[in-house]
Amino acid sequence: MEEEDTRDYSEPCVQCSVVNWGLTDEGRFYCKSCHNVIERTKEVLTSDVVPNAKIQSISRGFRKRKKIARETTSVCSGSVDGGSYVLKRKKGNLRMSMPMTLSFCYIALLWLREPVTLSDLLRFVIDGHIPYLNAFQYFPEEMKLYGVDLKIFHVESWPVYEDVHNKMSELAAFLDLPCFPAITDSCFLHPNILCIKYLMEANLPDELHNWTCRVVKKINAGETDFLTLDPVNKSARKVKYDVLAAAIIIVVLKLLFLLDDQYEWLLANLAGKRNQKNKEGCLWFDFKKWYKIIKKSVDVEQKKLDEERARCLWKCEKPLFYSAKEKSVVLKKRQMVVNLQRQFGALSGSRQVAEKQSPSSFQLNWAEENTDGNCFHGHILEGVLQEKGNSLTTMNTKYWLCTVKLCNEKICGQLTHYKESNFPQSYQFVLNLFSFLLRVPASLIHEEVVGMEMYCPNLLEPSGKSNTQTVKITGKEPRGG
């Protein structure tokens, strides 16, 4: 039937010059080779004499069909999939987009239990290891991008962690996927393993891992049912594995060092004096020295990151245009931009961009064999811990809660809001460190810490002590800056 309706139309396609026409559900002609949709529609009137009522009915049908077609297509219509993109967007359904492609990727990584977190995936995107910005320029030559398809591939911002994570949850439920393979204690995404990774990258002592494991056990964050994604169970929590691990480390640092801008500096002074007198054997962990080394390294890396983002070209060499009429104008503007960039580059003497490094799970690397003393992995927590019976407990007996002010999660969508002035500088520094490592807002990690402290009251007694005191903390100036 379709061949009979289209056989009399022998005009070649303006996009690919092929004569191979088909009909869309709306009765419009489209090229089967490149999926270009044109204005021509199927001939409906087949009789010379039609009753007046039927003419009015057909006329109304054409007007309705035409109205549905400005909603779904542009001047140069694009593919059939592209046309449905706009209509689905208006209906509020799940629609294809570049962040949605990342959600598909993350679902696949979760299903295969690959050693890649969501923050790793997004960092690989921003660093250019995964095509995202102007991804269409990597298409083969025969795949010409035009029309409403541009709305799918044309992005003007980097992907946001929470946006991709939420889309992943919606997509898994929409596809009616079964329960994912179990996240056990041998999987990379288990908090006990992820904590090792982030302790190494944050240049913290190896001994802290024993305490992160205690916290994981106390709050039941290592249970398979808690960690495994089950799209069918709508009430189950969708775990942010990397954010959870970072929050666990921060809680451990609060338990051991308090992070109130006073106690951690007292311990640091004690460790510094001891290390000066006894230079043989294992060094005590010095929070003040660690703070200075980490701050310097992060500042350098952050500056490099900011420079890379400033050099990022949102417009690619292969410009986008929505119709053939716009092509000449867009190409002229693009050539003008290229000329200006070349001239300004010559005037400013801008240096050439360094060769792109291979993707790595670590942004900061600390080698223990270095003799500059910048690696703290092998440092011990002497002076921070004390023996009690057959186990080690913390010297610190106080703990302050991050729950300065809680919000109504059902109304504003968040458990709490992070305001820096409400918290000690040391806590802010640690929070910002993991914010940099994960490339997520500090508020997201803070909210995870708040959730752990709220819903896990036995968290304050990780070593079995019953004399842990909860104290109120307000923002202060750091003593060790």
Structural topology:
Blueprint: H1 2-6, E1 21-23, E2 28-31, E3 37-41, H2 52-69, H3 80-91, H4 98-112, H5 118-126, H6 150-153, H7 161-174, H8 191-201, H9 208-218, H10 224-227, H11 241-257, H12 263-277, H13 287-311, H14 324-348, E4 385-388, E5 391-394, E6 398-400, H15 409-412, H16 425-438, H17 442-455, E7 469-471
Parallel strand pairs: 6-7
Antiparallel strand pairs: 1-2, 2-3, 4-5
Helix pairs in contact: 4-7, 8-9, 8-11, 9-11, 11-16, 11-17, 16-17
Detailed description of the structure:
The protein is mostly helical. The protein has helices spanning 2-6, 52-69, 80-91, 98-112, 118-126, 150-153, 161-174, 191-201, 208-218, 224-227, 241-257, 263-277, 287-311, 324-348, 409-412, 425-438, 442-455; strands spanning 21-23, 28-31, 37-41, 385-388, 391-394, 398-400, 469-471. The protein starts with a helix and ends in a 10-residue tail after the last strand. The model is unreliable at 44-69, 71-92, 462-467 and 474-481 (pLDDT under 50).
Q: Descriptors for this entry?
A:
481 residues, mainly alpha, 3-stranded antiparallel beta sheet, two-stranded antiparallel ribbon, 17 helices, elongated, disordered C terminus
Instruction: Identify low-pLDDT runs.
Output: 44-69, 71-92, 462-467, 474-481
Using the alpha-carbon principal axes, give the shape: elongated
- Number-wise, the strands total 7
Question: Could you report the average pLDDT, rounded to the nearest whole number?
Answer: 78
How far is the first residue's CA from the last residue's CA? 79 Å
Structural class: mainly alpha
Number of DSSP helical runs: 17
In what range is the share of β-strand residues? 5-15%
Rg, alpha carbons: 30 Å
Helices and strands, in order, run as HEEEHHHHHHHHHHHHHEEEHHHE
Instruction: Output the strand order for the largest sheet.
Output: 1-2-3
Query: Strand count, sense and closure of the main sheet?
Result: 3 strands, antiparallel
**Helix amount:** 40-55%
